[in-house]
Amino acid sequence: MYETIDEKLYNIEIKKLNDKLNEENRKYIRIFVDFKNFKKRIKKEKLEIIKNANETLLFDLLSVLDDFDRSLKEIKKYYNKPLIQGIFFIKKKFYEILKNKGLKKIKTKKGDKFNTDLHEAITQVKATLDELKGKVLSVIEEGYYLNKKVIRYSKVIVGK
Length: 160
Prior knowledge:
Layout: H1 5-51, H2 55-78, H3 81-100, E1 103-105, E2 119-125, E3 136-141, E4 144-146, E5 149-152, E6 154-159
Helix pairs in contact: 2-3
């Protein structure tokens, strides 16, 4: 019924060891969970890096796409329809290849509300009507997404 001093010391020692074991288990579980979260984050970052690995190349190729658009506008003035159609189909094929790599045009048109997340204002022009204030008056250069990330903002003229 009565514990001896040795038994009390023994029980106290067992309790201390159990407490220490429980603390070490909690540390282990925290470290284990942190490690699992770390692995998930690294895997996600790795997929993102792979997904956007061609970003600089695609960005550089956008100037070629712009040149196609400009040349088609000029060629329409001077040449016959079959030549224009041939160049148009080459441009379309080129854009489809870029599109398959994750490139997507930002849809910006005259009258859209100016959005700093998608647009870069080249200049502001006094708006003739009040409803044109803060709106896109003209699109100078198309903007593009790469896998939902803006890689080039649409360059626009905005009404003030």
